[in-house]
Design brief:
The chain is α+β, with helices and mostly antiparallel strands. The chain has three helices and six strands. Strands 1-2-6-3 form a four-stranded antiparallel β-sheet, sandwiched between helices. Helix 1 (15-21) packs across helix 3 (51-62). The longest helix is centred in the middle third of the chain and has 12 residues, at 51-62.
């Protein structure tokens, strides 16, 4: 017996989990350039977050329609401070593409 994934209409998520999936927006030169060019917003997300969860979380929190989600796992770099060796955390980034006509303002400025 094979396991069948539910269709998007049948999929339900825990709202408490969705509120924790998005950790922070990423505001950098690269993220801003991508946002201007392709209507894409970049978020730092939980390591265990899935693409459908990220999509549902963005739609729930920001009331926008999402076209697609791409995910990138970045390994943390090893850094030295004198004799001690430290390591940065691993990061999971989500590039969320919005449908045409949708807009997401993370600056918090009143229009």
């Amino acid at each position: 017996m094979s396991r069948v994934n539910p269709t998007p209409a049948q999929r339900t998520f825990d709202e408490g989990r969705l509120m924790q999936v998005l950790v922070a927006p990423i505001v950098s030169e690269k993220a801003t350039a991508v946002a201007d060019k392709t209507n894409t917003v970049t978020f730092k997300v939980l390591q265990s977050a899935t693409k459908p969860e990220i999509k549902a979380a963005v739609e729930l929190m920001f009331k926008v329609e999402v076209k697609g989600v791409s995910v990138v796992n970045t390994k943390g770099k090893t850094k030295r401070f004198g004799r001690s060796v430290g390591r940065r955390d691993n990061i999971r980034k989500a590039y969320v593409t919005l449908k045409p006509g949708q807009e997401l303002n993370l600056a918090g400025e009143a229009a």
